[in-house]
Amino acid sequence: MNKKDDVLFDAIIVGAGPSGSSCALFLARAGRRVLLVDKAKFPREKICGDAVSGKSIGILRELKLLRELQAQVHSKIVGVLMGAPCNKQVIVPFPKADGLDCAGYCLRRIQSDNVMFDAVQREKNITLMQQFLLKELLFDEKGAVRGIVGEYEGKEEKHYAKVVVGADGAGSAVARKAGLPPVPAEHLYMGVRGYWRGVEGLGENIELFFIDEVLPGYLWVFPMGDGTANVGLGILAQDMKKRKLHPNKILLNAIENSPMLKKRFANAKLEGNIGAWTIPLGSYKRKLCGEGWLLAGDAASLVDPFSGEGFGNAAASGKFCALAIDLAIAQNADAKVLEKKMLLQYDKDVREKLYPEMDISYKLQRATRIKFFLNHFISKAADKSEFRQVLINMLANDEDKKKVEDPLFYLKLLLP
Ligand SMILES: Cc1cc2nc3c(=O)[nH]c(=O)nc-3n(C[C@H](O)[C@H](O)[C@H](O)COP(=O)(O)OP(=O)(O)OC[C@H]3O[C@@H](n4cnc5c(N)ncnc54)[C@H](O)[C@@H]3O)c2cc1C
């Protein structure tokens, strides 16, 4: 392992979560030589709501890993139950994901991430270093990134590549070392989650509660298929700063006191601890690449600002990174460093394929901060089948999602 100092990899990827593993697999399968490092030893936990949607499933299918994912303990998700501050509830079915009898799954990240990690271990083009902690980036005299410095087995190691991918999650060290400012608090969710066993009334829906106890945040209950539910709270970091209570307390208080939840949790037991982590949202448009570097997944701030879903965009952005790097190497065979101008296909892919959906989600996130809107929206969907159909259509296709930008939509919402 230590004699890699003189190897020039095509790419070094920092982080082996869904963005880094996806990037490594697509690059390796295109014949590129990759060094993938992660500070953790896999299988490793990741604090998450554990829901994987159609987008994630599409990438896993492309990587020929869907069967392995389906072999893990999971629950099938067919719709979403939404609870309003006025305690009305509505269930809206999700459209089915391509080739599935459901919209997506819930399964523990220790399992889903490990499916990708196992595939990484089988690729001969990937050199893997676990428990490697990135400390610094190496720059050339022009300020372009040439490699990494990290701590490995108690020693400092340096490695070089044509490009470094920061797939190292929220609080990315690569982004920081590349000189980027942190994601602002108005574009960052604070998330906490725990696993409860014995929650009553779990079905095949994910459940989102926009209730007084947590507003302007939301509480989720996701069935895990193993008798437990992943229960968590997402709230903007800027709003969290204004609350006096610790987020764990807000979550526990909601479970104990909300009229929609307290009976269901009366005999439920928390297993293990409540964990907390930050969620960088796609409403913040971070610089995505520079001289000799790119960012993917949470490091690039690509989580859906409404649903808090980041696995799918992480895996998709890992793929887009790999495609851009492969293209840049093909077009610049002699380049020792991939310059920003060679990597712009990545910027284009994220802007065209990921940002539009997140821009709409951001509008929805802003709207659901308003209690009056939530009460009206959920009550109307509960009482009127035509309006429920509008919601189903909005979940099913991108054109209908744009209704959230249309003032007429809000007018219709207010009419009886
Ligand atoms: C409470 C909560 C709930 C969520 N719920 C959902 C959900 O239900 N569905 C969903 O799709 N998304 C959800 N998300 C978001 C999702 O977890 C992330 O978007 C996703 O994990 C991003 O993947 P990633 O590969 O970019 O980063 P990560 O999965 O965070 O992986 C980053 C990797 O980098 C490694 N690393 C970090 N720093 C270093 C370093 N210095 N050196 C070496 N290695 C390093 C880490 O060990 C880690 O393995 C949730 C997030 C939170 C916090």
Outline the structure in words.
This protein has 416 residues and is an alpha/beta fold. It folds into three domains: 2-75 and 105-184 and 282-362, FAD/NAD(P)-binding domain (3-Layer(bba) Sandwich), CATH 3.50.50; 186-280, D-Amino Acid Oxidase, subunit A, domain 2 (D-Amino Acid Oxidase, Chain A, domain 2, 2-Layer Sandwich); 368-414, no CATH class. The protein contains 13 helices and 18 strands. Strands 1, 2, 8, 9, 10, 11, 17 and 18 form an eight-stranded mixed sheet that branches. It has a seven-stranded mixed sheet with strand order 6-5-13-14-15-12-16, sandwiched between helices. A three-stranded antiparallel sheet has the order 3-7-4. Helix 1 packs parallel to helix 4 (109-122), helix 2 (54-62) crosses helix 8 (311-331) and helix 8 runs antiparallel to helix 9. The protein is globular. It starts with 7 loop residues before the first strand and ends with a helix. Residues 1-5 have low confidence and may be disordered. Bound molecules: flavin-adenine dinucleotide (FAD). Flavin-adenine dinucleotide (FAD) binds at residues 14-20, 37-40, 46-51, 132-134, 167-169, 173, 191, 193, 232, 277, 279, 297-299, 303, 308-312, 314.
